[in-house]
Amino acid sequence: PLLCYQHDLKEIVGTVVDAKEDKRGLWVKGELPKDDDFVRGRLVPQLKRRGIKGMSIGYKAIEKERRKTDNVRLLKQVRLYEASFVSI
């Protein structure tokens, strides 16, 4: 999957090299190109200063169901297309 900035597919900032589900949610490991001006000059400093704290994913639900007690959608299997650094 792609690693993007703000879900913008024109702002690809790296590649997801590993992803797995753990007790907290989705764990993602990515690689960022060190020679990219945007990554080196803007993204990495914001990550280090915690200006960008969040991540979000773009996916397609392959297998899902609705829980009858509260109508919550449960995702059983998804296809991960991209993970993004997001400010909100």
The strands making up the biggest β-sheet line up spatially as: 3-2-1-5-4
Element-level helix/strand string: EEEHEE
Form type: elongated
Rounded average pLDDT: 94
Distance between the termini: 21 Å
Largest sheet: 5 strands, mixed
Number of helices: 1
In helices, the fraction of residues equals 10-25%
By DSSP, the count of extended strands is 5
Gyration radius, in Å: 15 Å
Class by helix and strand content? mainly beta
Unreliably modeled segments: none
Strand content: over 45%
Quick rundown:
By secondary structure, this protein is mostly beta strands.
Task: Please explain how this structure is put together.
The structure is a single chain. With 88 residues, the chain is mainly beta. It is 14% helix and 58% strand. The chain contains 1 helix and 5 strands. The protein has one helix spanning 37-48, and strands at residues 2-5, 8-21, 26-31, 54-66, 73-86. A 5-stranded mixed β-sheet has the order 3-2-1-5-4, with no helix packed on it. Strand 4 (54-66) and strand 5 form a beta hairpin. The relative contact order is 0.27.
